[in-house]
Write a structure and sequence with these properties.
Chain B: Keywords: Membrane, Transmembrane, Transmembrane helix. The complex is a heterodimer. Chain A is mostly helical. Chain A has one domain. Chain A has nine helices and no strands. Chain A is globular, with a radius of gyration of 17 Å. By secondary structure, chain B is mostly helical. Chain B has two domains: 244 residues, no CATH class; 174 residues. In chain B, 58% of the residues lie in helices and 6% in strands. Chain B has a four-stranded mixed sheet with strand order 3-4-5-6. A two-stranded antiparallel ribbon of chain B has the order 1-2. In chain B, strands 7-8 form a two-stranded antiparallel ribbon. The longest helix of chain B has 32 residues. The relative contact order of chain B is 0.09. The chains are: A mainly alpha, B mainly alpha. At the A-B interface, helix 3 and helix 7 of A face helix 2, helix 4, helix 5 and helix 9 of B.
Chain lengths: 200, 443
């Protein structure tokens, strides 16, 4: 096997792709059961939770079982890491979009793409700080807390900190999510996931 | 190579449970619960802070996110030995599987329960600082705390059984979806098995609900733990039977689990003004603020007859000769952290309630509308009145004519002598009180 393929195998990418496809299928199934054509607001659970699940899948794929060995490599790691996170985030955003077609100005494709990128950014940053396998925890806590805590708030500072719950046209929410994505991706590309050999 | 002599007095090793409790992931799990719940409660503080019943409802509803989080934390801890590759090593120790299971599962269960309790304590302190009567409502707290610990224990079993990296986030998400679906369902037997069963601020649970919830969630968790780790797995039947019995009781009782709060049916009134001002007995200390916000209206209504007896603030429609007080609950609209805000709008809405707001709108002729506008402009002008007038002044000829008429009527009412105005207002309220719009005196 050549370099890229070996890299993909070592990061369990086939399993990750299967899990992302499963997430997308679940989102489409759940969206069909919500009768969202009556009211786009009913899509909020999908818009908030499908990206969260996708980001958890991406986060756990950042784990490297041979971390110490990786460090001895001659080639720089950052292009591979960057390609992995950005590529998976783009793919996940593409995959969860069919669940929420239409209603682009409220809770449609733009909001779910924004949430996927934002959640992936938080998860990537958490992989650097906590380790890849526990990287789902901060995003899960944050998104669920905002989900219950900010229902219906769409003005002022809430449009920034409650970005996972905002309609797709809110510029403050986009800015917050893209900042999280840029920071998280850059941090992961530079540092890589936290080594986890010695701890549980 | 020499072997060091063993020390004479062996140092007593700390209990394994203590080491597991103070180190590793367990304190981190407790902190994660506190942080998540704290962020959620801080973000929504306007809708619960200052009301004891609202606070209790909010921290109980927060189980919707804290139970999946606790289960995921337990699941993460359950997969620890697999991640470390120490499963075989553990099989060589003399302790039984159940003891080994409890030694790593109990600390997380204790910490997530403690994290929940700390958050509830902070929320109660926050409410205490601006409460307006009533007292702490802790009826659901024991059941909810046990549910948190039970979720962590169940998650631990799942983490031991399911050998995948994605087990914890998947369990969190599945728990969230299941609880969310049950919470949104509102009806059907299964929704009463929901540990995060929505409780309104005007409802109180039956006294035995926390104990039955404990049996339901705790029984399931114990059954899962015993079935996984006990030497005699048949012992799991006992807690399972308790859980089934408790679950059956919850489903059978159904809507009877919650009943209307008797306190919410009573009210506290200030009868020194007319109409008397009443607020619900759940927040009696708010009465001075409400009375003061309405003092402008009641001052101008002194000596006017045919008014409703009081502004009432209790569940259900106002009785005969009563007007509804603008709704103070849900918190976050007129009342935020024990303070009445937007007093001008509150007074304006209270005046609207006085003048037969329930009457069928088709009977409202232009003459009545002009009289209504003059009365509300005199008693408590709407904060939006200036903007509405400005829009009409910039509108077409019909709007400008209406505006001229309204302004003239306002000026006539304001320019009346005190006695004449009292008579006019008495006649106006007599007509508007029983929806007899024909009797509304002209201006």
């Amino acid at each position: 096997m050549t370099g890229p393929l070996l890299y993909a195998r070592s990061r369990a990418l086939p399993l990750t792709l299967a899990a992302l496809a499963g997430t997308a299928a679940f989102a489409v199934w759940a969206a069909g059961r919500l009768d969202a054509y009556l009211d786009p607001e009913r899509r909020v659970p999908i818009v908030a939770l499908a990206p969260l699940l996708a980001s958890a899948v991406i986060g756990t794929s950042l784990y490297s079982a041979s971390d110490e060995l990786d460090r001895t490599a001659v080639r720089p790691w950052w292009p591979r890491r960057l390609a992995q996170v950005a590529g998976l985030a783009a793919l996940a955003a593409l995959l969860v979009t069919p669940a929420v077609l239409g209603h682009a100005d409220t809770f449609g494709a733009p909001s779910v793409v924004r949430n996927t990128l934002g959640c992936t950014g938080i998860t990537a940053a958490a992989a650097v700080l906590l380790g890849a396998r526990l990287s789902w925890l901060p995003a899960f806590g944050y998104v669920t807390a905002v989900y219950l805590g900010s229902h219906g708030t769409r003005w002022g500072a809430a449009s920034v900190w409650a970005w996972p719950m905002q309609p797709g046209t809110q510029p403050g929410a986009w800015a917050a999510a893209m900042t999280a994505f840029a920071l998280g991706t850059a941090l992961y590309a530079v540092r890589g996931a936290r080594p986890e050999r010695a701890r549980g | 190579m020499t072997v060091a002599a063993a020390p004479k007095a062996a140092v007593r090793a700390p209990h394994p449970l203590r080491a597991e409790t103070v180190r590793g992931f367990a304190p981190f799990a407790g902190a994660a619960v506190t942080l998540t719940l704290g962020a959620m409660l801080a973000a929504s503080s306007a809708r619960w802070q200052g009301g004891w019943a609202e606070t209790a409802a909010e921290v109980h509803g927060a189980l919707l996110i804290s139970v999946p989080l606790a289960a995921a934390a337990g699941c993460w801890q359950g997969g620890r030995e697999r991640r470390r590759g120490t499963e075989e090593l553990w099989r060589t120790v003399v302790r039984t599987p159940l003891v080994r299971f409890l030694a790593s599962a109990l600390p997380v269960a204790l910490w997530v329960a403690a994290g929940y309790l700390v958050t509830v304590g902070l929320a109660l302190l926050a409410t205490w600082s601006c409460a307006r009567g009533d007292g702490p409502r802790l009826a659901l707290l024991p059941g909810d705390t046990v549910t948190m610990a039970a979720a962590a224990l169940t998650g631990h079993v799942v983490g031991r059984v399911v050998p995948t990296r994605l087990a914890a986030p998947l369990l969190a998400m599945a728990g969230y979806v299941v609880l969310g679906t049950l919470t949104a369902a509102h009806s059907g037997g299964a929704s009463f098995l929901n540990p995060a069963l929505p409780v309104a601020a005007t409802e109180v649970p039956v006294w035995w609900l926390p104990w039955v919830t404990t049996g339901w969630t705790g029984g399931l968790a114990l059954a899962a733990g015993l079935a996984y780790a006990a030497r005699r797995r048949v012992t799991a039947v006992l807690p399972l039977a308790a859980a089934v019995a408790a679950g059956a009781l919850l489903v059978q009782t159904g809507d009877g689990l919650l009943h209307a709060d008797p306190l919410a049916r009573r009210q506290v009134c200030d009868t020194s003004v007319a109409p008397a001002v009443c607020v619900n007995a759940r927040y009696p200390d708010l009465l001075p603020q409400v009375t003061s916000a309405l003092s402008g209206v009641t001052g101008k209504l002194e000596g006017v007859r045919n008014l409703p007896v009081r502004w009432a603030d209790r569940a259900g429609r106002p009785r005969a000769h009563e007007a509804q007080l603008p709704m103070l609950t849900p918190l976050g609209w007129y009342v935020v952290r024990g303070r009445l805000i937007e007093r001008e709008e509150f007074a304006w809405e209270a005046v609207q309630m006085l003048s037969g707001s329930d009457c069928p709108p088709e009977e409202l002729t232009d003459r009545v509308l002009v009289a209504d506008d003059a009365v509300s402009s005199y008693l408590a002008p709407s904060p939006l009145q200036k903007e509405i007038d400005r829009d009409d002044a910039e509108g077409d000829a019909a709007q400008r004519a209406q505006l001229r008429e309204r302004r003239a009527a306002r000026a006539r009412l304001a320019g009346m002598g005190a006695r004449e105005r009292r008579e006019w207002l008495s006649a106006y309220f007599a007509a508007r009180g029983d929806c007899g719009v024909k009797g509304v005196p002209s201006l």
